[in-house]
Write a structure and sequence with these properties.
Acyl-CoA thioesterase, alpha+beta, 3 helices, Thioestr_dom, two-stranded parallel sheet, 178 residues
């Protein structure tokens, strides 16, 4: 079974309140991460028809601060489907209500796993790739997964060769005391 990407896309908009802010008066990153996890869950669950859990988050860079009083819009879309997992692409934008200025605040990729009623992994429908962007996003997800596997193996403690990295490490703000 396959589904159109558009059928599971989700967006939410929320007003940022003082209770969402940190000590510097900007919206706390943890609040935004919470919203991102919620919308990734909603998108993945809508696509799969199952309860979903977050397996991993691929890089979250906060590009622009979000101010109290701004509207924050989060958009989620399934970029990749495996057998039981999905990669959900997220985009976060803020909008100043008075000026209408919009800022891209961050983008991220959440890997979500579908679960059946017994808590076992559940098969998910595939997605129909019908645009150049959808093919690009799917291919990028495959490459991101391959890079992650290589990173995990490269720095495995059983295979790590310290001699290969000492010169690199010494170029940074560190003191080595082995």
């Amino acid at each position: 079974m396959f589904k159109n990407i558009e059928d599971s896309q989700v967006s939410i908009t929320e007003l940022m309140l003082p209770s969402h802010s940190n000590f510097s008066g900007k919206i706390h990153g943890g609040h935004i991460l919470n919203l991102m996890d919620q919308i990734a869950f909603a998108c993945a669950s809508k696509h799969s028809g199952h309860y979903c859990v977050t397996a991993s988050v691929n890089r979250v860079d906060f590009l622009n601060p979000i101010e109290v009083g701004e509207l924050v819009t989060l958009k989620a879309s399934v970029n990749f489907t495996g057998n039981t997992s999905m990669v959900v692409g997220l985009r976060v934008e803020s909008e100043n209500i008075q000026s209408g200025e919009k800022k891209h605040c961050n983008s991220s990729y959440f890997t979500m796993v579908a679960k059946d009623a017994n808590g076992n992994n559940a098969k998910v429908p595939g997605i129909i790739l019908n645009t150049v962007d959808s093919v690009r996003r799917f291919a990028r997800s495959i490459e991101r997964q391959d890079q992650s596997r290589k990173r995990s193996t490269k720095y495995n403690s059983a295979q790590f060769n310290i001699e290969e990295y000492l010169d690199i490490v010494k170029q940074h703000n560190v003191m080595i005391d082995l």
